[in-house]
Automatic annotation (TrEMBL):
One of its GO terms (cellular component) is efflux pump complex. Residues 104-131 form a coiled coil. Pfam families: Beta-barrel_RND_2, BSH_CzcB. Belongs to the membrane fusion protein (MFP) (TC 8.A.1) family. NCBIfam families: RND_mfp. SUPFAM superfamilies: HlyD-like secretion proteins. This is Efflux RND transporter periplasmic adaptor subunit. Keywords: Coiled coil. Residues 72-211 form the CzcB-like barrel-sandwich hybrid domain.
Amino acid sequence: MWLLAIISVIAIAAGVWRAVDGRSAKKEALEASTASAARTFSIPSQEWFTVQPRQMPLGIPITGSLSAMDSALVKARIPGELRDLQLREGDRVTRGQVIARVDATETEARFRQAKLQADAAQAQVTIAQRQYDNNRALVAKGFISDTALTSSLSSLQAAQANHAAARAAQDAARKNLDDTVLRSPIDGQIASRMAQNGERVNVEAPIVEVVNLSALELEAQIPANDSAQVQIGQAASLQLRASNGQLPQNLQAKVVRINPSASSSNRAVPVYLQVLPAEGVTLRPGMYVEGFIQTGSLETLAVPLSAVHTDQPLPYVQTVRDGTVQHTTVSLGARSVGQDVTWVAVEGLQPEQIVLTGSAGRIPAGTRVELQPQSTPAQPSNAS
């Protein structure tokens, strides 16, 4: 009995000690929190700014790969053995330049045959014409009947028709002979070579692809909801992403064509932009670019997107009033494009209101702060 009583007393004492210790810990935490709130933090001049109305450029983001506006795939027009193809990728060609030939032995023989048949038909026309002229003279003198004249006229007309058919066959044979010579339809460079000398190629077999690098375009897929904002002639700003640590290269473009219908696969509207030449920048088909089409501008109160916090149900910015940090809920609107800092239009702020940048970090509401003075109005950086 005495043992059970002693154990009970010890248990009760331990419980009382834990309760007292817990209250002490809570009291210490509360005192620490109060001390933290009472402490004044210094905010560097580059980590705060005053909200001002600003002109925000608006646009539609675009990405894609460059392609040549003028390109041609040279194909075989007649079957045969490929010969005299000396050009390779990167070689320059001019319009009308001979690229290759298809063995013309059989084609030349057919052309000669067609020419001889046309010559023979011409001889038959000459004979029929002479016969008709003679019969017409004899009919005039009454030596033969009109029936003979009619028969000779029919023979003449048949000979003329045969000659016309033979001439058409000769023209077709000449066309086939000309088609054995493959020429470049445009000025440009050889982009790809798809056949080799000695190969037997069929009709429509691709031989080489020629591209003109003097004019490049970008096909951008615009969401159907945004396509109404795009018009022919609008300017666009593009960036060619560089490698090896080099800076991106800026390009200018303009909208030249808009597809009248949306794609059935992604419900986007293809928009075509002509990329303008840029000094010191070498562009080639297949290069990846990104940018935006300029659709207008908006004057509004705006803050850097990085200054907006989203760790609460509603977005907010950290403002300073009477030396105290406040979490001010804002409504977000349009975002700017084409600037080092992405700005977002906001509602819920007043002009000249002080806002902390993103680099200031998250500061609890109610914290006392002291703003370091600025020599010039602060311009938030991209890291803000």
